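Please predict the structure of the following assembly.
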Amino acid sequence: MSRLIVVSNRVNPPSGEGEETVGGLAMALAAALREYSGLWFGWSGKTTKKFTGALQMEKIDGVTAAVIDLEAQDLDEYYNGYANKTLWPLFHYRTDLTAYDRIYGEGYSRVNKRFAETLRPLIEPDDLIWVHDYHLIPLARELRALGVKNRIGFFLHIPWPAHQVFTTLPGHSRLVEAMFDYDLVGFQTAEYRHAFEEYVLSEAGGAQSAPGQLSAYGRTLKVGAFPIGIDAKDFARMLKSPKARRMHDLMTAATVFRSLIVGVDRLDYSKGLPERFEGYERFLADNPDMRREVLMLQIAPVSRESVEAYQDIRGRLDALSGRINGEYADVDWNPIRYVNKNYRRDELAGIYGAARVGLVTPLRDGMNLVAKEFVAAQPPEDPGVLILSRFAGAAGQMGQALLVNPNSPEEIADAIKRALSMEKAERIRRWSALFENVQREDVTAWRDAFVNALAGPVANGAALAS
Ligand code: GDG
């Protein structure tokens, strides 16, 4: 079997039971690598005065990590800049928040080059290289320039935006051209893949040379949809852990005679949190008889705090939660508990399991793993109801959830009411279908589908020689 080299911006494998990494990508990659004698390469999360390319190797929980430190300027221009102020908002349709600054683009190119130069000596001829996410789109281009001939695949964890949105990016064609240095490019859903294809066909003068194959810029690559899943086995194990049980009991005790409605998200403007709070507020306003029967718990650990848009959204949520509690709270009841603390994964599992309703309403989301975790945590004999945004990639696989338009507080309010009044038979029917999908299309299935496609016949028909 070829060795697998996974490359992502941050390398943060779990440090053991109950680690506290927040973010879907880290969890998925750690799980994906566990069965491979592979390597995980990327940024350490630390800065250094002068970039040296010195590698630090570490074995964490069965995963070999090779990390480098970056300069503060790299962080500013590449990570906080081009990745999180340009590509992230744009790919989530927030052109109003998208910053276009040439300096950011230069930082992005520089760091991709630094990644390539540092990774180059670690690559052996048969290695498969799997690059992750929007931080590293030009990495294959840089590696090819250094003579790397290996198979290189790319997976985008976030949406690929519609043509009209994507073309607002200065230098969009350079970015797409660089993607043609990969052998395989994977998206979360068929919709994102189509949006990419549309760009290549209409903007880059490309052609679909065969199903799942695109030619442009004098090269050909394979494209596919690979919906990511959770580590279902590990999640099931975690649910039975003492920490999960304790949290479950704690939440059950805190909601006697009440139904718990839960949301868990990184504090990010793409997750639709203000609209969700407004939807809940509308529910409270419309249903006075149900008010004291519910409690909404929103867990939202802060992320990317040095980016201004994240400070703004935090301020808005503080104000909204205060307003809702101010309007509706009673001496013995608060309608909303809004918590910025980061919980252990096993504790989260216990919380999901105690909830009657899971509120997952991002405005845009590549996939959304919280929806899958909520389903995985439900008791089969009396499961809760998932309310899911139609704009999460997960909606494509999770049609048995109550799908809502996350921009509409009315739709969210109606869905909450419907979820709380749903008969047990219907809840079981919906949940069974969802659960079956979460188990089957888990992170292992995702990894295997991608790695097999990368190792399989290449776009020009040749098979991998090993
Ligand atoms: C990106 C894409 C795609 C949340 N709070 C805590 C905590 N979490 C964990 C959740 C979940 C993960 O973080 C979030 O994953 P998502 O998939 O919901 O979202 P992103 O972080 O935006 O991930 C997304 C994903 O990549 C994978 O491809 O699905 O669309 O945006 O696992 O449980 N974990 C801990 N404490 C918390 O307080 N430990």
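Residues 20, 22-25, 27-28, 157-158, 228, 264, 266, 299, 301, 342-345, 348, 365-370, 373 surround GDP-alpha-D-glucose (CB under 6 Å). Residues 226 and 449 are 7 Å apart (CA to CA).
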